[in-house]
Specification:
It contains five helices and six strands. With 221 residues, the chain is of the alpha/beta class.
Length: 221
């Protein structure tokens, strides 16, 4: 679970999530006596709204929700690893969704000058975030938060300097979710799920202002 964290390589578009976007084989009914979730939803603990409501055609009993700080499964912690293993190996879910949200405090803090992290001292782990010492590095000799720094650098390179800070933050959140998707797709159990029963992996971002999710669709080629 502690493999290097990949950076998103493809261009992408931001598209709305239609209410009936997901389809399930054998969806549960309101009077079902046995619940077996068919969707693994990985969300952020910081979300103030239940963004799973954006899937209006899916019963709550069909969704297994796992939340942590930053909707990140690549950390290598037992909670995220066990949720992924149970949903893939045990439940054989049909869909895996990583859903971030715009204006995430974790991601805005990761680029804060006051934390002496990204701009000031990118090689030193901020004492205010001891949990980040558990995050995997992109290189064996890199500081644990180096993947955050590389994502910021990639985001800065792609966004024109004329963009306001809000737009830049939203772009970084999208890249962050796509990086998690890249990591998931490299996991053996996820690759097997895609091959054996057609499991699909989706990148969502929740927009609190609009009260809806968007999906990030990578361009082919």
């Amino acid at each position: 679970m502690t493999a290097p964290h990949p950076l998103p390589q493809k261009a992408y578009t931001v598209q709305p999530v239609p209410p009936n976007y997901l389809t399930l084989s054998n969806p549960s009914t309101d009077d079902a006596t046995e619940e077996k979730e068919k969707v693994l939803w990985i969300g952020c603990s910081d979300s103030l709204v239940s963004e799973t409501d954006s899937l209006t055609n899916i019963n709550r009993s069909d969704i297994f929700v796992h939340r942590n700080l930053g909707n990140r499964v690549s950390v290598g912690d037992v909670s995220s690893g066990s949720a992924l293993e149970w949903c893939v190996e045990g439940l054989k879910v049909q869909h895996i969704i990583v859903c971030g949200h715009y204006d995430c405090h974790l991601l805005s803090e990761s680029k804060s000058d006051s934390n002496n992290w990204y701009h000031s001292h990118p090689s030193s782990l901020p004492s205010s975030f001891p949990f980040f010492s558990q995050y995997p590095s992109t290189k064996s000799n890199s500081p644990p938060q180096s993947d955050f720094i590389q994502l910021h650098q990639l985001s800065d390179a792609q966004e024109p300097a004329s963009q306001d800070q809000k737009a830049r933050n939203r772009h970084f959140e999208e890249l962050y979710v796509l990086a998690e998707i890249e990591w998931l797709k490299k996991q053996d159990q996820v690759q097997r799920a895609v091959k054996e029963w057609g499991c699909q992996v989706h990148a969502f971002v929740y927009d609190r202002e609009r009260g809806e999710c968007v999906r990030l669709v990578e361009k082919e080629g």
